[in-house]
Each structure stands twice: as structure tokens, then as C-alpha cells.
């Protein structure tokens, strides 16, 4: 893993940029924005993907696989993520040539260029909240530039250029890079301690969020309900703090949440109340909507039109996304990779599955998080899913840790009959098909590549039907 060095200079002018790991949702969005600025873009990723093909169609030069030969002579800036290894041949050659080598957060900083910035941060809900703000602003007639961590369903992209001075981003707390930006309005969805491999302690994690909030130029919008957010709020010295949530004293208060289908709720602000309904399920999305509305109010919009605009949000890719139905079994995918997110995703699925059962296919993400939170993962999976199929750990940027596998999570279940550890993906797909029945929901969970098992699950379900 390469930790970002935010002290490195960011070039004033960029004419040709090469992205190492260009296929990721965040990196592909940045690359798209650089293309829109008229900058020559090239990049590589370890596997082919839809994102690579789309960038190639827009004029980028893309490569499958990392090789020093991918770095053209005219490149002046190389953009990387923390997920690559220091031995990456393109990274090594860029250093040898003396090129500007910057982290993706610095590449985003260059794009922002001093515009009025809304930064969305938090352990969970960032991508959804950012999507809600962006789509609502467009509905209200404002066209911000934006860079999100995931594809916004109704726009079909994770980034886009606008003609307004406003810039909206999903800001990443995992490596401290959210502190780089000159934020005008900070939205903090929650502060559930995570990424302690970077921060070291929970107190350091909280302190970073407090600094992020206190440095906002105009306002801080922060959850009134989340315990971590409450700890951060206690450290704030900012003169303009707007809270949102179910707490009685919240400035934008959520009440009357109904989750049996598309979530409905009421929002109250300064004595005015508006009923709302979203096309996406889950109580957590009612809370996300309250945060988005609070940001819109801070930007000068009125409550009623702000709520109506947020209601149009259709979701983001890899957030409770339906991929197919086979033999009456619906197969979904969700990005959830933290116990709190897993609980929220499964609770949302529970609210709409009716008499069907929930079968979770969980891929733990990173060895450090799995080692730290395997008991919590087991607890929420056992509580919210009827059955769990446990895959092995997706290591991402980390080296394997002896004894830290998916079996560590499955062994922590109180009732072993509720979980089945199957490291082989084909066997996992076949097993899932064998236990699923009409009306059930299968939902893959994780921010690695677990979604790639979905075609195998659908094929296994089809075989079950053919053999019946």
C-alpha cells in the first residue's frame, strides 16, 4: 500500500495524465473529468472492465495490466491510488523520470480549483448522500460539477462537469485525504470508527472529523443520532452547525419512518413539515435524505422543493442493486463492507422481501478490518440474514494475515447452522442455489469483487430449475 504524501507539490498545469488503477469507480470518474478538461488521458488496470471500455470510447488510452511500457513519453503527471504496490512498474518509472506523481485526492484537488465545495464525509452513506445532493441540485436547476465514489443510477456516471460554481464530492476519510480540500459545506453522515490501520486510535479518528468540520468555510451538517458524530459535535467550535436525524433537537428532524416497501417519512425544519417517500428502501436512506435536504437548505433552497428534489433519487450502482431474477429468487448486490453497513443493507432488504428469506453472500474486505471486526460481522449477519454464505477475504492492498479468513467470521456465529463457509466460488454459487427458494433474496455484500459471483449464482439457479 502507498500512503498518500499530501506534502508533494500539485502541478499548476497538466497536459497529459496517466492513471494507475484507472478502472476503479473513483479513478474512472476522475479520468473522465480530465478528458472533459481537454487533457490527454491514459491509464491501466489489472483487469478489463466496462469502465475501461467507456473511457477508451471517450478518447483515453487504456491498458489491461500494469507495465512500464504503458507510460508514454508525453505524460507529465501520474495519478495513483493507495491500493497499488510501491513496486508497480509504472509508479517506479514515473518516479525515475521525475514526473509529478500525485495521489487521486490531489488530482481531485486540482480539478476543484478553488470553487465552492460541498464535501460529503462519513464512515457510511457517503456515496448515496452525494448522489442525493447532486441529483436534487440538478432537479432544482443547479448544475454542479461532481465526483462521487460510485455511479449515480439515473445519471449513469460517477462524475460530471457543470456550469455552476458549485462542486460536490465524496470525501475519503480512510487515509486522511478529506483534510486536503478547502471545503465550504461539510456533510458528516456518521462517524463510526473504521480504518484504524491508518488512524491508530478511535480518538484520532474522531479528531480528524472534528478538524474537517471546523475548517469548513460556511457550515457543518452533521448527524444528531450517530454516537461518533455526537462525540465530534462536542469538539466543534464552528459557528454554523446544522444537525439532522431522529433526535428531538435535530434542526432537520426525521419522524414517522415507514419501511414496508419504498421508505416514507416526514421531515421537519423550523416548524414546517413535509411528507416524503423515496424509491429506494431502508430507514438508513431516510436519514441520508435528511442530511441531503439539510445541505440544500444551507445552500439557500426551501424545504418543500428540496424534499421533492431529493425524492427523485433513484439510487447508486452497487447499493442494493438488482442483477437478476431466476427461479423466483432475486439476486442483489450491495457495497456494504462494515458491520454497520451490512446491518443497514440487510434491514432494507428485510423491509421489502415479504415472506421470502434473506441469503447473504459475504466477502470480508481487507485482513485488518476482518481481524478487528469479525465478531461484529458474525453478529449482524446472524441477526439480519436467514443464512450466510461466507467467502474468503478480499485483501485489496494488504498482504494476507495467517488465520484471518472468511472462516474466522463463520466460526464466530452462535449457531453454525446459519452460516456456510465456502471459499470456492463455484461451490458457493451452487450451494446458494441449492438452499434458495422462490421469493428469497440473495444479496452479495462487500466492496471487493464479490459482485462477480452473481452470474455464477444466476446460472446455478437456472440449472436447479432445469434439473427439477
From TrEMBL:
Residues 120-295 form the Mur ligase central domain. InterPro entries: Mur-like_cat_sf, Mur_ligase_C, Mur_ligase_C_dom_sf, Mur_ligase_cen, Mur_ligase_N, MurCDEF_pg_biosynth, UDP-N-AcMur_Ala_ligase_MurC. It is found in: Cytoplasm. Pathway: Cell wall biogenesis; peptidoglycan biosynthesis. It catalyses: UDP-N-acetyl-alpha-D-muramate + L-alanine + ATP = UDP-N-acetyl-alpha-D-muramoyl-L-alanine + ADP + phosphate + H(+). It is an enzyme of class 6 (ligase). Keywords: ATP-binding, Cell cycle, Cell division, Cell shape, Cell wall biogenesis/degradation, Cytoplasm, Ligase, Nucleotide-binding, Peptidoglycan synthesis. One of its GO terms (molecular function) is UDP-N-acetylmuramate-L-alanine ligase activity. ATP binds at residues 122-128. Belongs to the MurCDEF family. This is UDP-N-acetylmuramate--L-alanine ligase. It comes from Microbacterium ureisolvens. The lineage of its organism: Bacteria, Bacillati, Actinomycetota, Actinomycetes, Micrococcales.
Amino acid at each position: 500500500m502507498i500512503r498518500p504524501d499530501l506534502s508533494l507539490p500539485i502541478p499548476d498545469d497538466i497536459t497529459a495524465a496517466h492513471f494507475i488503477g484507472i478502472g476503479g469507480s473513483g479513478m474512472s470518474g476522475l479520468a473522465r473529468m480530465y478528458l472533459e478538461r481537454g487533457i490527454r488521458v491514459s491509464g491501466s488496470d489489472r483487469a478489463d472492465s466496462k469502465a475501461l471500455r467507456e473511457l477508451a470510447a471517450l478518447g483515453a488510452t487504456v491498458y489491461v495490466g500494469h507495465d512500464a511500457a504503458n507510460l508514454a513519453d508525453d505524460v507529465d503527471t501520474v495519478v495513483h491510488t493507495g491500493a497499488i504496490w510501491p513496486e508497480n512498474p509504472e509508479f517506479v518509472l514515473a518516479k525515475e523520470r521525475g514526473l509529478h506523481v500525485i495521489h487521486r485526492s490531489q488530482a481531485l484537488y486540482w480539478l476543484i480549483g478553488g470553487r465552492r465545495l460541498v464535501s460529503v464525509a462519513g464512515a457510511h452513506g457517503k456515496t448515496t448522500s452525494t448522489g442525493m445532493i447532486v441529483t436534487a441540485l440538478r432537479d432544482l436547476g443547479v448544475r454542479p460539477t461532481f465526483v462521487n465514489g460510485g455511479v449515480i443510477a439515473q445519471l449513469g456516471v460517477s462524475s460530471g462537469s457543470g456550469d455552476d460554481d458549485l462542486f460536490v464530492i465524496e470525501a475519503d476519510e480512510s487515509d486522511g485525504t478529506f483534510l486536503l480540500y478547502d471545503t465550504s459545506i461539510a456533510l458528516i453522515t456518521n462517524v463510526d470508527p473504521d480504518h484504524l490501520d491508518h488512524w491508530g486510535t478511535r480518538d484520532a479518528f474522531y479528531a480528524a472529523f472534528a478538524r474537517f468540520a471546523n475548517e469548513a468555510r460556511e457550515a457543518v451538517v452533521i448527524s444528531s443520532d450517530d454516537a461518533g458524530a455526537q462525540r465530534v459535535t462536542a469538539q466543534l467550535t464552528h459557528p454554523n452547525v446544522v444537525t439532522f436525524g431522529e433526535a428531538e433537537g435535530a434542526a432537520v428532524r426525521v419522524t414517522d419512518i415507514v419501511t414496508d416497501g419504498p421508505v416514507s417519512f416526514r421531515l421537519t425544519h423550523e416548524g414546517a413539515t413535509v411528507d416524503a417517500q423515496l424509491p429506494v428502501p431502508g430507514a438508513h436512506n431516510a436519514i441520508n435524505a435528511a442530511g441531503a435536504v439539510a445541505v440544500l437548505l444551507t445552500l439557500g433552497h426551501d424545504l418543500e422543493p428540496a424534499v421533492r428534489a431529493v425524492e427523485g433519487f433513484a439510487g447508486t450502482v452497487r447499493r442494493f442493486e438488482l442483477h437478476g431474477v431466476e427461479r423466483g429468487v432475486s439476486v442483489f448486490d450491495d457495497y456494504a463492507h462494515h458491520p454497520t453497513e451490512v446491518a443497514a443493507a440487510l434491514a432494507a432488504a428485510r423491509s421489502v422481501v415479504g415472506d421470502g428469506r434473506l441469503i447473504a453472500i459475504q466477502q470480508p474486505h481487507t485482513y485488518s478490518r476482518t481481524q478487528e471486526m469479525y465478531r461484529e460481522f458474525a453478529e449482524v449477519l446472524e441477526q439480519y440474514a436467514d443464512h450466510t454464505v461466507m467467502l474468503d477475504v478480499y485483501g485489496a492492498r494488504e498482504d494476507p494475515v495467517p488465520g484471518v479468513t472468511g472462516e474466522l467470521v463463520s466460526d464466530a456465529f452462535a449457531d453454525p447452522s446459519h452460516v456456510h463457509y465456502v471459499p470456492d466460488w463455484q461451490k458457493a454459487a451452487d450451494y446458494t442455489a441449492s438452499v434458495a427458494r422462490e421469493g428469497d433474496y440473495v444479496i452479495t455484500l462487500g466492496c471487493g469483487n464479490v459482485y462477480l459471483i452473481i452470474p455464477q449464482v444466476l446460472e446455478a439457479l437456472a440449472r436447479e430449475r432445469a434439473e427439477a
